[in-house]
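hey so i finally got around to running both of the ones u sent me last week. sorry it took forever, my laptop kept dying halfway thru and i had to restart like 3 times lol. anyway pasting them below in the order u listed, first the sequence line then the structure token line for each. didnt double check formatting much so if smth looks off just lmk and ill redo it

first one:
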Amino acid sequence: MVVGRALWFGNLVVGVSDLDAAAEQFRSVGLDVLDGGRHVQFGTANRVIPFGRSYLELLAVVDRAVAETTWFGRSLLAHLARREGLVRWSLRSHRLDAVAASLGLAIERRSRTTPGGRLLQWRAAGLELSLEHAWLPFFVEWPDGDFPGGQPATHEVAVGDIAWMALTPGDGDRLARWLCGAVVPLRHVPGEPGLTACGIGLDGGRELVVSSGPDHRLAVEVR
């Protein structure tokens, strides 16, 4: 069995309809947003907000024709048809083989090219299940030098890490098994299974809350 300290928050994926507009929401509260690049094979593109040990990923469909032919793209399109906001989350590990074996998951190799032409590569497990059940994490293993959370960022405010994430599990026992003993700051809330919101620590005891607003659009609020 994998010990919990082998796993920690990797990233939270925020599905958005317009990457530029979403990036401006975060920049307006003092966060630096980096152009991540395109997933050509899925018809999607992303922007990255690094926090050091973790990061937020803004994800949008940029080629609908391609997205409609892939399970990854179709999942995002289906989510955005309902609302913008958190769509899935990951746990990072340097022991992905052990994690995957403990849960009976296959490992796949993934990659994307940055706007500067650099090829980033990582390994992942459980992604397809996380697309079906957003309350389940998927698992990633990054080379330290390629990890998006570690990219240099010039935030205008002092930023901590992901402080908490609110979700509604479809099966609490299954989620507990998936965590493999990892200590993750989850808040279980009532409602339909899925992800609800997250909080990121800021200076002065403040926090940035990311959620889906009453109009089903992305909400970014400093509290």
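and the second one:
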Amino acid sequence: MAMHDPADAAAQRVSGPARNARIVTDALSILAPLGWAMCGHWHVQGTADIVTLAQRGATPAEIDEAATELWNGPSVFWLQHAPDPIRRWGNADHPTKQTLWDRAALMDKAIAHHMAGAYEASIPILLAQIDGLSVDLTGRSFFSKANADPYLDDHTLAGLQENLPVVRACFSTDVRNSGRHALVSRHGIMHGRDLAYATQTISTKTIVLVAALAEYLPRAAHSVAALAREAHEIRVAGASVRDESGRPVDDRHLPQVLRMAWDLDAAYASAVLMRSGPFDAQTQVTRRARTYGLDPDRVSSGQDKDGWWWHYTLPAGVVLGYAARPTTSSTRKAPDVFRWEGDVAPQVPPWVDEAGWRSDDLDPRSPAWAAPLVL
């Protein structure tokens, strides 16, 4: 099938203007029953071409071929990066975030197998990770007939009624007998019933399903991470000890402080390096503390002719401080950054008295400041 010019695939996605609504409606009725999940990365003209092909009497095999060519040709960038959104989820809880990153990494390896033509490897890896991802976020496998999540919403293409529920039925088809079925059936593939599953089309359909789930599931991931963090904070509240890495076991507010520090660091570096204007420390710190829901009574900031600083007292009693000034290094353009971790608050910035402060040019950082940063 002759396809369109891929010169600007990123700008030609189905999820755009209302003029594409008819294309989406027609495409869903044609593609979803074949196991193709709709999402915002379906190319507008390529999808319209497939609809036209179907309306002219193309067979399911011809439609599959056209969609496979589309995704492995003009839309191959979106195919290769289907798991990327998953890395942006779960920001409230580091263990949840780490699990999502690990799953995305395995999906990346599966897609590399796909690009190399090793479909016998790409498909089982992806099906296993979709299984695990959906269990983690909904409590049931996407492929389970007992999964009560309707996979519907009002703000994504993935969540349209004619989309994921229909595609899920395809992927959940039972295959009882061994044979060369070449079906997009998780049961047939993972239970060894289908001996002809390893095709580019089935592998592509599975990756496109990942892209659709990556569009549909972020709210569920946010909820799961928030609940996990809330449960963690209930467990550790009031603990007065430190863990094996030296960080306070009661780490309430620590993720927010680390994110605030990263945010402020970026804002100050931009102000200094890009000369974007004066940096008002008190305004910036107050605004960021409010953004991250931190207690305003626990934060203090200061500024002088040389630089600026702030500190925050965690509920565990640990004080984290941060200070920065324009670089004094002959080799580093980025600002000088210093950090504080102690049982008492710093009284002066490090350029007045270095005691208790540690430069970012020295490794390692103090335990709390070295905690994994969840963005």
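quick thing i noticed on the 2nd:
The chain has twelve helices and five strands.
anyway thats it, ttyl
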